[in-house]
Amino acid sequence: MRHTDVTLDNCLKCSDCNAACPVMTAHPRYPGPKHLGPELEKLRREGLPCDSEWLEYCLGCERCDMACPNQVNVAELIARAKAAHKKPLRRRLRDWLLARPGLLGQVISLAPAVANRVLALGVVRRLMSLTAGIAAERSFPAYARVKLAGVHGRSRGAERVVFFQGCSMRYNEQALGRDCIALLAENGIETEMSEAGCCGYPALANGDPAEARRRVRANLELLYQAAENGTPIVTACTSCGQMLKTGFTLLLGDDPELAAKARVVESAVRDLGEFLIERADQGHLSLRFGDCGHLGRLAYHSPCHQATQGLSRPWFHLLRMVPGIEIEDLNAGCCGMAGTFGFKQEKYPVSLSIGQRLFQAIAQAAPRQVVSECPTCRMQITHGSGVPSVHPATLLVMAYEQRKVVDGGGGGARLAS
Amino acid sequence: MGRQTFDLVVVGAGLAGLAATATAVAASGGARVALVHAGLGTFVYGAGGVADLGGVAADHPAVRDFRALVDAAGVPYDGDLGQSQLLPTILGTLLPVNLAPRSLWNGRVRSGTRAAVVGIAGLSAFDADFVAERLNRLACGCCYQARRIELPRQDGLPHSVLELANRFDRDPAFRQTLAEQLRRVAADYDVVLIPAILGQWSDAGQMAELETAVGCPVAEMATLPPSVAGLRLSNRLLAHLRGQGVDIFGGYPVTALEVENARCRGVHVATPGHARHFAASAVILASGPHSANLLPGWSGDQDSRRRPLDHQGRFLADNLYLAGALADPEARHGGNGRAIVGGHGAALAAFEREDDHATH
Ligand code: SF4
Ligand code: SF4
């Protein structure tokens, strides 16, 4: 079973993991999960030197884990090695910053208008690429000052969820946050916006376990009470969801008291799509959707961290309940962005090369918009394919509003931007 | 605990589980089917050839349905169940096989043919000289000659079958170079035999394109793990089933079956955070011999509808069925044929059962 300490003898060297690894398709020198995971772990446990720069190239997509027939926790072994990996100063400084999207967001949102304009300047981006190793080709998401907090949709509901926003929603996508609130309100659920900060995944992915531990430690206290009371903790970001379901135990599991709390919180976490599809399953999802034929052809991309939660593709099914929606499941593998990975100058070409299969599938499907729940997948999709992308919650809210238009009940039809 | 409801849950994504899933989708018309697996079966160890059918008739509907499935998934099989033929292996031996994916079937022994066994410089996983020499010693009526081609190396690195397969999938220039190199060799032969490297995702159309460019049939031979031919079969079948609406939950094992009053209510899956419960009207267990521990009280026997029986000869649950190596633990040969027939039979039994319920 994954996320427990399997014996390394479980590995039968079948290479299923290597076959599934997106980086192996794009970089000829990447040694692959079999080597970086179970093979090097043997040496690490013997205390032998076996650090490798390639550890930085692991996306943490966990496709290797999903493919392994013998339940070896390959990606976790790699993540542990990443934590011990030594980087040169320049990359260390940059990754220190990328490990802290919350800090970045807090600073920038002090003066978002200025920061957005500065970050969009070509000269600034070239400067960042020269000094900080951030790919100049990437554009930064726009930051906003407004924060979503408090309880919403109270008049409607007996049921309540605690909503974990994540950095992307908190600093860049407040509109999506409002859509999620509206979606839940439509279903008679009130939403309490949690004060919890970064989930800690970016820190883990950048080989900074100390920072990751600080984040999960703080979040544990903020989320524990709600979880203990049986309130679902819902997130619309798949990587936050993956982290919230596994990271507390991974990073705090050594302390028995914290480990018990960690399990309580982890078991309360739901991906928003998972939460809604289970309600649909029990007949508790509002089906008051209006016809959305005007959206035109859509294509769905499922993020790696959706599958790693053992969820299949709830959002795809939810959208297919909307009359008039025409949506294709692209099923074309990893987008290559992997959170902060695609921002790193030296990793940028690999990132785009991994996404090639997905970009081709998008070109073939020729959709008006690509739908995906992960914020950085969406960045990569629009960057690599030129097609706009949208979170499925936004479309679902639109479908509810469309019905209201038809019913004459106020609320204008909105078009996805 | 998370909960979702399905008409059928199939556990295991080997050939048995995939055949069961496909049969269920075709037989049920719109049933909600979940495929739960904790890894990709034994595909990396072979190529999916069917050697015998474990004693069932050659015109069995399972085989007809399976061929329709692989056709639709873009990995068509060739061959004739009534008659086995010999396929060369990378150990220089000949293996009797009745049905195999087309790219492997192309290599079958046909008397009087001249075959080039083509090695790739820098790929140690395949020794063309060794294969040709051993095959010639078997005097099967074909003439084998070892040849060698050069393919551009990435960063000067040695090749691996996975690296070549990934490039075949992704790089049109690589496919063209491969075709040109093989074409130069092919001029003197009826068929070229190469190690299985023709893509993890490629379909019959891409294979046909390659053969047109080469000018003669191109035959793959399964290598030591990972067998690209097996991976391709697994990848394309899973993608096809997903396209058919099947929900695939990969990577986490089923930890328990929920059985109550001789009825299986569903399965528990050890997903992160919280285990998920899939409620089901029927469950097919096709996840290999290790899954026997999910069946407390099982005698090892099954009834004619593939339901596991206890020591008193009663079924453990009236809607629980077995397929694959779990159902056939002793079968050492013809595993793939048995898997296909078993998966098919279990799916039909599952839906027959539901029909019974509907009519009563
Ligand atoms: S898939 Fe699992 S068993 Fe196979 S080589 Fe990778 S880690 Fe080892
Ligand atoms: S986590 Fe993803 S990128 Fe990293 S080794 Fe595994 S499959 Fe490759």
TrEMBL record, chain A:
Keywords: 4Fe-4S, Iron, Iron-sulfur, Metal-binding, Repeat. It holds the Pfam family CCG. The lineage of its organism: Bacteria, Pseudomonadati, Pseudomonadota, Alphaproteobacteria, Rhodospirillales. Transmembrane segments: none annotated. Residues 2-32 form the 4Fe-4S ferredoxin-type domain. NCBIfam families: PRK11168.1. The keyword ATP-binding does not apply. It comes from Magnetospirillum aberrantis SpK. GO terms for molecular function: 4 iron, 4 sulfur cluster binding; metal ion binding; oxidoreductase activity. This is Anaerobic glycerol-3-phosphate dehydrogenase subunit C. PANTHER family: ANAEROBIC GLYCEROL-3-PHOSPHATE DEHYDROGENASE SUBUNIT C (PTHR32479:SF19), GLYCOLATE OXIDASE IRON-SULFUR SUBUNIT (PTHR32479). It comes from the Bacteria.
TrEMBL record, chain B:
Keywords: Flavoprotein, Oxidoreductase. InterPro entries: FAD-dep_OxRdtase_2_FAD-bd, FAD/NAD-bd_sf. SUPFAM superfamilies: FAD/NAD(P)-binding domain. It comes from the Bacteria. One of its GO terms (molecular function) is oxidoreductase activity. Gene3D superfamilies: FAD/NAD(P)-binding domain (3.50.50.60). Residues 60-248 form the FAD-dependent oxidoreductase 2 FAD-binding domain. This is FAD-binding protein. It comes from Magnetospirillum aberrantis SpK.
